[in-house]
Amino acid sequence: MKQAPKHPVRLERQGTIALIVIENPPVNALGVAVRRGIAAALNAAVAHDKTDAIVIAANGRTFPAGADIREFDMAAQEPSLGQLFDLIENAPKPVVAAIHGTALGGGLELAMAAHYRIASSDARMGLPEIHLGLLPGAGGTQRLPRLIGAELAFDMMMSGNQLSAGICAEIGLIDSVTSGDLRSEAVAYARTLTEVRPTALNRTHLMDGGDYMATVAARRAQVKADLGAGALAPLKIVDCVEAALLLPMDAGLQLERAAFEDCLASRESAGLRHAFFAERRAAKFPEAADAKPAKVERIAIVGGGTMGSGIAIAGLQSGFAVTLVEQGESGVNAALEQIGAFYERSIAKGRLSEAQGAAALTHLQLTNKLDTLGEADLIIEAIGEDFDLKASILAEIGAVAKPDAVIATNTSYLDLSALAAATGRPANTIGLHFFAPAQVNKLVEVGVHDAASAQAVMTGVGFAKAMGKTPVRARVHKGFGSGYIGNAILEAYRLAADIMLEHGATPAQIDGAMRSFGFPLGPYQIADMSGLDIAYARRQSKPRDPDVRYVEIADKMVEQGWLGQKTRRGYYIYAEGQRTGVPNGDVLKMISEHRAHKGITARKFSDRDIRDRILLAIVNAGARLLGEGVAARPSDIDTVMVHGFGYPRSRGGPMMDADATTPSIIASRLSVLAPEEPSLWAAAPVLTMLAQERQKFADLN
Questions:
Q1: Taking the model in full, what pTM does it have?
Q2: How far separated are the first and last CA of the chain, in Å rounded?
Q3: What is residue 479's predicted lDDT score, i.e. its pLDDT?
Q4: N or C: which end of the chain has fewer CB atoms below 10 A?
C-alpha cells in the first residue's frame, strides 16, 4: 500500500489563488494530521496579502471520502471536524472545494463548509453515516437543508446513497460540473469570485417555515412507522433538521454534536461499526504477502442451475465475459431462461435499461461442451453437492483448462482437498462458496487447503472483490459440523433449534423468537424456503457422527413429501403463490408422536430461552472453528453470519455479542447445558481459554 506522505497537506500558490492540496492515501481520510494541516494552510493562505481566493483539492483517487472512523473511539483531538469546518466557512476570502472521486461523510461536510463547490463530472457525493448508526456530526445536518431543502436533505441522510455530480448540481448542492481538468478549472473559477458565501447565512430553503415543519413532521411519523420509536439515528436526524429552522446556526451545531455523541455511544452504532471493520479485516488474506491476484477477464461456470446462473449473472453485472456450461440442450435452455428472467425483471423495475440488459447478455456464452473452457481465466464448478459427480467433472475441467487457469469449486461442505486433487492440479484449485442468491448476496467463502498456491487464493480473492463481494478465508475442518464457516455454524444453530423442537417448542415459536431478535427469518422458515430435500440429501450423503445427537423430524417430513414452499407444505402450509405460510398442524402432530416415541416430556420454552440457547450454540461453534483454524478471526465469523445468515448487522455479529456478555459468562452458561448434549454445549477450548484469561474474542482479531 502506498504510504502517506510525511506532510499530508501542503499549500501551493497559483498567482493570487492559494491551493490547499490534501494527500493522505488511500482515501484522504480526515484524520487529525490532515485536519491540522488544512487549518494551518488555510490560516497561512488567509494571512497572505496576495491571496484573493482559496481552493481545497486532493491528490490521488478521491476527495476526502470521510472522517477517520478509527478515531471515533479515541480521545478527541483538536481541531475537530466541526471546528475545522467553522474555520473554513468563516474564512474572510472565498473558499472553493474541488471535488473528484467520492466526497462522502466528512468529505462532503468539508465541501459544504466551503463557500463554493465545483466537481468533476464523474464525482459522487453522499452522507453514509446512517449505515454506521450515526448522523453527519460536523455540520451536515445544518448545512445540507440550507443548500437543498429539508425533503432532499432527509432523502440523502436517511438513505446514505451517493448522488452523481450532475444530480448534485441540479439540486443545488454544488455550483459547477466540469469534464475538463478539475484543478485548473477550480483555480479559474476561484479567480472570478469576489465575495464569500457562507452556507450558515443561506436562508432560501428556510423562508417558508410552515412547509418546512410539515416536511419534518411527516418524516418523523414515517420513521416511527417504518422503524419504530427506538430508531435512534434516524430520529436524531429529524431533530437536527428541525433545529436548522428553529435555532441559530451555532445552537443547531451544538444540538447536532450532542445527537452525534448519543448515537456514537449506542449499542447499534458500535455493532454497525464493528461490522464495517470486520468486512475490511476479512478481506486481508495472509497469502497477499506472497502473491497478487492474476488478471481475470473471462470466467466459466460449469452448472447452470440456480446457483450457477446466479454466479453467471453476478459475473455479467461486474463486466466479465462469461461462459456457462450445462448438460444437454434442455439444460442450456433452462439456464438461459433463468438469466433472461433476471434481466427482464431488472428492466421492468427500472434497475437496468433495455440497452444495458442487452449489452450484458452479449458477453454470455451458453454451451453444453466442456472443451470451451480453455479460454477461461477462472473456472467455477457449481453442480450439486455429490462428491463423486463433482470429482468427475473437476477432473474433466482440469484436463481442458489452460495451464494458468484457476479452478474453483462452489462446494459448501465436501472435502476441498480431495476435490482439488481430482483436478490433477491442486495448487491451482480453491473453493469459492457463493451464498444464495449469488447475484445479490455479498458473501463469498474462499476455501483454502494445504496444497493451494498463494497465487490461486489471491486470484479468487481479487475476483470476489471485482464482483463487489466480501471474501472471507476459510478451511474445511474435520471437527464439529462440516463445510466452511457458515455451514458449520448453521448445523449448530439447527441442532439447538431441533433439540428444543423435540422438547416442547414449536417451529413457529422458534422462528418468532429469532425474528424478534433481529433475524429476517427463523430457521424453519428458511428450511421451507430452501427446500427440505436439499438438507436431507446432504445429511444422507455423509456418515453420521454417533457422538452427535440426531433429530429425525425433518427426515420424516421429507419422507411424507413435505418439502417446504416448493410443495406448499413444510413446517408451514402455503396458499397458491404465497411465500408466507400458516403452521402445519400435521407437522405439529408428527412432532408430538415423535416426542412420545422417544419418551420425552414436553416442557415450555420462553422466547428468551430459545434465543439464548441458539446464540450460545452459534458462539460455541464459532469458537470451535477458531480453534481448528477454519476461521482466521472472530470478526470473520461475524462477517459470515451477518452476510450469509441475516444476523442483525446492528449487533455486529455473534462473536461481538459474546464479548458484550463476556466469554467467562458464556462458558459458565454452557457448562449448565453441556450434560444435555456435549457435542453442542461443551465449551470449545478457545472459549475456555478466553474465560480463564479474562479476555474477549476481540483480542483475537
A1: 0.91
A2: 21
A3: 44
A4: N
